[in-house]
Amino acid sequence: MSIKKKLLFVLAIVMAYLFLNIFQVMNESLNQKKKLSEAATLNTLSSKLSLFIHETQKERGMSAGFIGSEGKKFGDVLPKQRVLTDESLVKLKEYVVQIDLSKFPEELQKELSSLQEDASKISSIRAQVDGLKIRMQDSVAFYTKMNTKILHVTDSVAKVSEVADLVKVLSSYSHFLKLKELVGIERVVMSGTFASNAFAPGIFAKWNGLMSSQVAYTEAFLAFATDDIKQLYAQKMNDNSINEVEKFRSIALAKVNEGNFGVDPQIWFNTITQKIEILKTI
Fold first, then answer.
1. Are 193 and 138 spatial neighbours (Cβ–Cβ below 8 Å)?
2. Is the dihedral of CA 192, 197, 203, 204 positive or negative?
3. Three-state DSSP class for 163?
4. Domain boundary among 126, 145, 160
5. DSSP-based three-state secondary structure for 238
6. Which residues are in the Nitrate/nitrite sensing protein domain (predicted)?
7. What is the pTM of this model?
8. CB-side exposure of 218: number of CA atoms within 13 Å?
9. Which of 18, 25, 228, 243 sits 20 to 30 Å CA-CA off 1?
């Protein structure tokens, strides 16, 4: 083979190698673009779910307070809260419609469908609350069950993501939302306790379990959180509402057997709501 032919042969090999590498780079680039696009979708979905659960947590607490007071309290603020809940639900639904769910696992699709089914029953529950035709524990159970499904969806979102950094952030966020949900349940439990001025049978154990679980989820959240999020959390925990909630807890613990707490349930509700609003900003 002449030198010229050899050079052409080598050139052909080099060109083939270059084209192969270009194809691989383009393919990897497309795959990375797809992963980043899906990650952005999941991130936005988590944000919409977070806003929805924040509003349902408030509606749950106000509904319980309305029933527990036989309609004497929270009647002025509950309708306004329902508007906020509805607005967050509309935004969530509008975004879900835009998503091509077929790209994601069937588990995530089923959980979103189940959540939407529960959300469709809110109007019926509200009518029962307004007419005082539902027990407080049943009203609380409905919202808590729905919120649990929201948390299941956020768990699934974290599992689906293929972007390592986002997986860590979403895992941290999932633990944080569970922490926030437990604080919301504590708000309901202790609103009823302070209103009745005594711990009902089994309620102290439930409350104690809620506080222990909050500690566990806080630790899990911080274990996955980035340094800037940890710093933000530490900063927010200096808010006065955090200390005030601890004072109310201390009163309840000191008088666990005798009761007669001397705590206005409305003030407790407003104070711990301020704490939850602080958590929302993280």
1. no
2. positive
3. coil
4. 160
5. coil
6. 53-282
7. 0.72
8. 12
9. 18
Which tokens in the block code for residue 192?
């009823």
Domain encompassing residue 70: 40-160
Calculate the alpha carbon distances from 55 to 26, 88, 256 in Å.
44, 7, 31
Q: Is the same domain home to 146 and 186? A: no
User: Closest Cα partner for 264 from 195, 199, 198?
Assistant: 195
> Where a domain ends, among 142, 160, 178?
160
Distance CA 14, CA 274 (A): 67
- CB 166 within 8 Å of CB 172: no
Question: SS3 of 57, please?
Answer: helix
- Rounded distance between C-alpha atoms, residue 119 and residue 240, angstroms: 34
Give CA separation, 227 vs 161, 275, 277, in Å: 21, 22, 22
> At 170, which amino acid appears?
L
The pLDDT tens digits of the residues spanning 188-220 come to 999 888 988 889 888 899 999 999 899 988 988
pLDDT in tens, 140-175: 999 999 998 888 888 777 776 655 566 677 778 888
